[in-house]
């Protein structure tokens, strides 16, 4: 991940690469490297060491903290995928904005959820994306990759309603097939979606602080260049070619540079049989 905290104390990346090039810029994504798991010798039932044994656990009450929970939430629940949402107002004005309160919830059919936090100073405290989705019930969700992250980030400013962030950021619109909002050409994974439900979020004072939007993916577009197909015909996206970005706390984004595989216990450990350590710990059956 390309964040300041992952550099070694001597200013180099963990694998010995320089953290900056001759122009003072970070190096480009070197690709995704498959590595060992953090503890490849672990066996079922064996206790794994905690890096902070005996540490005091702080307690945060959302009722007491209120909006002060924001910096903690976005720095603790990481990394978060980013939904780059394209929508239209009922008058047909375009809007484009990234949301990291987002994830996929199912696959048959694919459903996604998006969290829209309310902002003071706006009509009904709603951002344009939320208002557009409520008005039209349609949007496209364009996954973000490294090669246009600066352009995408430029769309998250507090622009006036009706400003077309897609044009402002220099991104290219592509007509959708089922829904009216355009897709983003720079994205290699584009999802056409329809709004299926909402849930209003209120704090303990009864104030409306956000809304959770539930959308159904009605059509998927994926660039052939980033697709892998198994012998059984299953399609997957090649992570190294996809180069997705995710959100951390503050202004930080993250990239994927390393990955490791962990087999499901029902497909690996049962075949191996319980170890003596697992049997002693009572986890053998």
From TrEMBL:
At the top level of its lineage, which domain of life is listed? Eukaryota
Q: Which cofactor does it need?
A: FMN
Alphabetical list of Pfam families matching this protein: Flavin_Reduct
Q: Which InterPro entries match?
A: Flavin_Rdtase-like_dom, Split_barrel_FMN-bd
Q: Name one GO molecular function term.
A: FMN binding
Keywords assigned by UniProt, alphabetized: Flavoprotein, FMN
The UniProt annotation puts the region (Disordered) at: 1-50
Protein's UniProt keywords contain Flavoprotein: yes
SMART domains attached to this UniProt entry: Flavin_Reduct
Which residues are in the Flavin reductase like domain?
75-230
Name the family: Belongs to the flavoredoxin family.
* Protein name, entry field: Flavin reductase like domain-containing protein
Natural source organism: Elliptochloris bilobata
């Amino acid at each position: 991940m390309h964040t300041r905290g992952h550099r070694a104390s001597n200013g180099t990346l963990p694998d010995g690469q320089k953290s900056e090039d001759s122009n003072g810029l970070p190096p480009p994504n070197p690709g995704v490297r498959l590595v060992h798991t953090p503890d490849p010798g672990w066996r079922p039932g064996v206790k794994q060491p905690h890096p902070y044994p005996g540490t005091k656990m702080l307690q945060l009450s959302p009722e007491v903290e209120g909006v002060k929970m924001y910096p903690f939430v976005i720095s603790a629940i990481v990394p978060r995928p980013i939904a780059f949402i394209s929508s239209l107002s009922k008058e047909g004005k375009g809007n484009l904005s990234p949301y990291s309160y987002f994830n996929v919830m199912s696959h048959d059919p694919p459903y996604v959820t998006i969290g829209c936090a309310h902002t003071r100073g706006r009509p009904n405290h709603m951002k344009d994306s939320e208002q557009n989705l409520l008005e039209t019930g349609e949007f496209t969700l364009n996954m973000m990759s490294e090669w246009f992250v600066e352009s995408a980030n430029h769309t998250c400013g507090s622009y006036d309603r009706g400003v077309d962030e897609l044009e402002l950021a220099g991104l290219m619109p592509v007509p959708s097939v089922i829904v009216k909002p355009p897709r983003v050409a720079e994205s290699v994974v584009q999802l056409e979606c329809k709004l299926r439900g909402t849930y209003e979020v209120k704090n303990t004072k009864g104030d409306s602080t956000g809304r959770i939007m539930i959308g159904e993916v009605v059509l998927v577009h994926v660039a052939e260049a980033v697709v892998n197909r198994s012998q059984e015909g299953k399609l997957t996206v090649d992570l190294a070619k996809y180069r997705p970005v995710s959100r951390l706390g503050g202004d930080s984004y993250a990239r994927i540079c390393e990955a490791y595989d962990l087999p499901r216990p029902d497909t690996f450990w049962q075949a191996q049989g319980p170890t003596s350590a697992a049997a002693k710990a009572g986890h053998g059956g």
